[in-house]
Batch of 4 targets.
Target 1
Amino acid sequence: MAEIIENSYYSIYIDNSLQTLALYLDQNKANFSKYFILVDENTHTQCIPYLLAQVKVLQEASILEIDAGEVNKTLKTATGLWEALLENEADRKTLLINLGGGIVTDMGGFVASVFKRGIPFINIPTTLLGQTDAAIGSKTGVDLAFAKNQIGTFAHPLGVFISTTFLKKLPERELLSGMGEVLKYALIDSEQLWNVLKNQELNPKMDFDVFVNECVQIKNNIVEKDWYEQGRRKILNFGHTIGHALESYSMSKGSRSILHGEAVALGIIMELYLSAKLAGFNNEIQQEIQQYILDNFALYPIDKQDFEPLISLMRKDKKNNDSNIAFVLLEDIGKPIYDQFISEDVIINALKYYAQL
Ligand SMILES: NC(=O)c1ccc[n+]([C@@H]2O[C@H](COP(=O)([O-])OP(=O)(O)OC[C@H]3O[C@@H](n4cnc5c(N)ncnc54)[C@H](O)[C@@H]3O)[C@@H](O)[C@H]2O)c1
């Protein structure tokens, strides 16, 4: 049975068999002139066969493939896709189906939202991170000069179709990266979810359906009240101010890039430190969560010479004011506060704290 989670713009179907997608396409076939499926090379081989077996009408779709990886989430890749759509005579009734992780859904949503001033698209997220976070909430975009998500749009998919069957093919490191965002949801919204997490070791055999369901509900509730991030939606950025900087920095260095969810988990270590210093977060619980992260995620080592470039990346964040950098802090689990503008010297203390772990 499909679980359907709705908001004012679209429905999110959690249905492992994808039969709700087959039905949706059948009921709406008059609205679409043709179908394109956007994939990267991994979702091309690992996910297309299941999709086409479950949703036969998509066997007639054209497939567009991009190279996998955050370094390809660029305007250059987007331009290639717009050219391919044009060459293949896509029109305003063309449906773009984004089949992949957060890179594919961010990229595909962006490409669709501006091609011919907007064509319809749907998201079929295939990573844990995509299913719990990236594919819902209607943010699309690409990176610019290694700075994350600098070019983008708010654009609503027609629907999001989630099948956790795809996760069976996902590499273990990617699954655990997705758990970085799951941890974020627990800390900003659900002590109960944190209790579930802390009492089991992260492993690829966990019941991800439970996490997907819970996180989709949490995110949907938050974005529904603040689509354009004027206020409370900002709490979804907990762990991301420093996390995004670490992710971009590791990418620009090229030696050992860290994954988005890994960067968020490491960002949480530092943003919890700041929460304990500045927002009264309980020190013991801070240590407990930190230990959980250290037990489950590899550290990305930094030292003194990395502090300035990391701060410089944080300054590029879209949510800052003139002199200080915007953070989400926690007063307690489930009690986030946003628009906490913090000076650089205090942030450096958090980086120093992390560097000595
Ligand atoms: N728009 C948003 O609200 C939002 C929220 C969170 C994250 N994001 C973005 O999401 C991106 C990260 O997403 P991600 O972690 O899904 O990364 P990703 O899209 O790079 O996917 C991870 C890897 O797994 C492969 N893959 C995907 N599905 C697979 C499957 N079922 N089986 C085998 N391999 C598979 C991909 O090819 C890729 O190599 C970042 O760019 C981040 O900024 C966006």
Target 2
Amino acid sequence: MVAVAWAALGLGLGPGPVLGPTAAGARVVLVGVDGGSWSVIDPLIAEGALPHLAAIARRGVTAELATVEPLISPVVWTSIATGRSPEAHGISDFMKTGLDRRVPTIFERLAARGRRVGLYEYLLTWPARELPEGFVVPGWLRRDERVTPASLAAKVAYRYDLRGLRNREEYRENAREEIARKAGQWNRLAEDHDLEVGAVTFYAVDALSHRYWNEPAVIRETVLGVDGAIGEIVEALGPEDTILVASDHGFQAGSRRRVWSGTLEGALSDAGLVPMRDAFTILGQFGVVVLRVNAGPFAEREALLERLRAVLEGASDAAGEPVFTVDVLDEAERPPGAQRGILTRLRQWGLRRFARWRFNAHFDPDAHAYVIAQFEGDVLEGLLPDGEIRFGGKRHAMRDLISADEFTGDHHPTAIFLAAGRGVRAVPERGALSVLDVAPLIAALAGEPVPDDVEGRVPEEWLTAEFLAAHPVRRVAASAWPELPTLAETELPVDDADLLERLRTMGYVR
Ligand SMILES: [Zn+2]
């Protein structure tokens, strides 16, 4: 019913009268390489091992791409897509979704101008927005499998997924699959939609650089694979098209450390606690398990919260040693008689401060509460490699619930940038660019104006005189830019906070 209402709103879009005509025809494609680093790529280009990246560099420009803090994928990819700093766009951590983004992306804006725009596994694009004549296939931080248009679902044969990977060999296999399948899938989607502007992101380099940094042969194989995939994408483009390649951060050696992650969906469901069906969501299971209990009737939500807490606190090894340290962060106002004691409130305060300082984690006050389960490393080490965990009254193989990773690589603040094709000069010297400059550059290369709330600048010195003469870089008021429709909460035929919260969670309403 809600989806029907959405469609019934119609998409009365197209170029706004104050913005002038658009320049159609050519394609502008951003290929994201999460974790791509010049420290790895330059030596491989020098030995001739990356023919496709080398060709883009030779035909166009390369730059050290200055990134933004914190150096984590959802934050930086959102700055790349919006041209805005994290303070402005509001995506601070891995728990956020597209619903938390406060400003539009350049992709949404170009779609609102009538351009055919497609996004394939770009972060953060869940929940998928309707882009007129375009498509959105959300990236790996998605909470469900929906795509837009819904009819596209049957045509998307490949999606990158980290859920359920239990060891680094499985991460390696997963990376190989992305390298083998993603470019072809992207090319089919782009062709089917006669795409004008789009983005596709590869995550293999990041996933394996964390885990195999001290095994250069694996990093090499992965970067060579991504280079081949970029070659497939370039091959499908014409001479009038432009390709941009960017990463969100580089990589460097880090201290060797254990990282635990959970795959608790199945065991929670076995215990009668089904994410999304019941009023909670799993926000994260990497490094720490974070569950969000949705806002709603206090007593009901409190009972759910206590069941979740109990099942996690009860998870133990055979000797009864707990495998999690469980905390609750209250958000809903607690009625008289349900107040927490001073020690509990102090512990919650300390945990919030720690989460903010250490992980830049911001908890939304519009939840009922959060459950935070930290892995008990000492107990879990004793269970490796194939111990058992008691969870929700059942015995599970540890590897089905919790996996052990070892990290040797860390993010580095210098990312990569390359561009070539229509409008881009060949510049042999490596330049400097900010992640905030990518969105305005995409707009300019698409022959579109740049909204004046974008913080970055268009590097006009890299554009050809011919292109600039035909498409002078223009700044226009963001307030005059057409917007994609969203469903306002007031248009919903509900006044039930719980249903509204579920719709929000499902992405139907902001
Ligand atoms: Zn990473």
Target 3
Amino acid sequence: MPATTADVIVIGGGVAGLAAATALAGRGARVTVVEARPHLGGRAGTFVDPATGETVDNGQHILMGCYRETFAFLRRIGAMSRVRVQPSLAVPSIDSAGIRSVLTCPPLPAPWHLLGGVIEWDALGWKDRLSVLRLGAPVKTEQRRLRGATGRMACSPEETVENWLVRNGQTPRLREMLWDPLALAALNQPPREAAAPTFVRVLAEMFGADPQAASIAFPNVPLDEMYAAPARDYIEARAGEVWTGALARVIVEGGRAVGVRARGGRDIRARAIVSTVPWFGLRRLFDEVPPPVQRIVSDAARMASYPIVTVNLWFDRGVLGTPFLGLPGRTMQWAFDCGAITNSRLSHTSLVSSGAAAVVGMSNDAVVNLALGELRDALPLARAAAVRKASVVRERRATFSLAPGQPVRPTAGTPLAGFYLAGDWTDTGLPGTIESAAMSGHRAAEAMQ
Ligand SMILES: Cc1cc2nc3c(=O)[nH]c(=O)nc-3n(C[C@H](O)[C@H](O)[C@H](O)COP(=O)(O)OP(=O)(O)OC[C@H]3O[C@@H](n4cnc5c(N)ncnc54)[C@H](O)[C@@H]3O)c2cc1C
């Protein structure tokens, strides 16, 4: 079969790949996206669960008001209306003793909105509330570092999140109610294991000049409708192509990446190739790893992964009474009313366990019982409700580890001519999130200008 050509080939049709491909297509490049799976979306995708026949996301995803690159991507593809951003941060939760409270940040300039919210939060004693003031200075240092105003870091790369919080005077109760759930959600790794710098970066982004940066944003449609389908339309409307079910291998000739061989032996040639495959998929892109990228490929293979487990429960009635609920101190740390989020009539509740190393190996029945037990313990409404169906989604390699001593994350440009890297795990300074993926895709597009 004769080879076809494109200006740029993007390998992988998740957030990073589609952000890169749409940025390039928007600048007039003819782009071909090559995705191994039958559908787009990668780790932020939607599928039909064979056990229940229900269409579900690959785990509930939330965005934050500080996701600037993600929102730029959504605006580009005309999909900004598919997320709903809270006007200011409001987090309802039920603590391990069953006490319900809401952290509500008033619409004040930063950092007064967070201080105002914590000072008013009746889940905390006065000592806990005042301890938040001690984080002001290190978070400001990180914000100055991000602006290039100082080279000083607010923490050491060897220090864990837990050590950093304790060293900065955060009380056990404030950590249990606020920082530990936030760190687990943002980093997908327990605070005693994850290194502090990425967490401090997240705080600096969330509690920056714009008070809405700390708000939570919810997709109000399934993830494939939120970004994957509109991104595909955008690329195809600009003379690009999207191949699915096409496992890619990079063709290297004369020390340069010159194209991609997809399943079925279909070749495509281009002046630049962007890989957005995850850290654990990089080695398989090459028959023989070219010397210039051997170090990057072996570092990627050494990166450790962390799991996320999601339990979907369909009740005979609504149980949460709120779009989402924090369950600090429990194995399933967050519950989402997917019916309320997407405005559908389903009483579909999704419970998420991040950093789920202890749960991922349990049987489906055991995980469902654990989730149901924790929800019923927290919520009297759930005790009377009957479960119609249930499913478990395990993502064993949901995100890469942020533990001290992990391999260096690679930049967009590589020493192999014509070969660029993107993906949430590349060097964005952010944890494995949609925002990191979108940022990496945009950086790869810029790197080849
Ligand atoms: C359960 C779960 C919950 C999460 N919750 C959140 C959240 O609430 N908020 C948030 O911001 N982030 C969340 N994340 C993280 C977020 O989903 C990821 O950071 C993001 O989707 C990564 O996008 P990516 O494009 O870098 O990688 P991926 O989504 O992994 O995309 C890479 C793509 O490359 C394809 N591929 C691999 N090898 C090849 C090959 N050889 N040829 C062709 N294609 C190939 C894969 O099939 C895949 O589609 C969550 C992740 C999971 C798993």
Target 4
Amino acid sequence: MDRVESGIPGLDEMIEGGFPLPSSILVAGEPGTGKTTMCVQSLFHGAKSGETGMYLTGISEPNWVVQKFLSSFSFFDQSLVEMGRVVFIDMGDAMRRNPDDVLNALKGEVERYSPNRLVLDPITVMRIAFDSQKRYREFLHDFTTFMKAFNCITFLTSEMSYADIPHSLEGYMADSILVFSYPKEENARRKYLEVLKMRGTKHLTGEQAVDINQAGVTIQPGLR
Ligand SMILES: Nc1ncnc2c1ncn2[C@@H]1O[C@H](COP(=O)(O)OP(=O)(O)OP(=O)(O)O)[C@@H](O)[C@H]1O
Ligand SMILES: [Mg+2]
């Protein structure tokens, strides 16, 4: 199986060297646990070795706000953004104008840039664009199938917690599930990452400690 380095220190050693290519990865976890940071860190890692990365959002937050908060991390490289190796796109307008056409709008952007890694952050806003669960399911299926043809790593982020995942459509459809959490322990909250599934991969199980600092997300497997 082809694999690509995640670009997240500590993660590749948990997953036989990297993410299976192509694959879709659900990155789940409560607000502020590090989902966006991890995904964008992976985009920049790929872009540094010549890949193209795409970050698509559907929320009303303008792209410059997202980029401003991400630019404080050392992995963020403005020159890669200027060269178009990491592309930030806001789908919010397209979604509001014509929800029925979201899939085509997405496909159009993907065909334009042919990304090697793509982040849809958060996938949950897409659900709002569709009037029924059935249509959202069709969208998810079509989109993940479409992305496979691009030999791409597709990250889908979702604000759900561990308890929501077994019942979720996104969890069922994705090839891999990474879940961030920050359980309360005595008086502190520490962050953890767990690999719940990764198709074709013998992965480390259980919650592994996460550190977020200026360099981004680091996983410390085995550290308690
Ligand atoms: N320089 C830093 N040093 C340490 N921790 C940081 C730093 N920058 C951000 N963080 C931590 O990372 C978190 C932000 O992570 P991020 O925005 O990636 O989370 P998220 O899961 O995408 O959240 P949301 O669901 O709200 O989008 C902050 O809540 C903060 O705890
Ligand atoms: Mg986020």
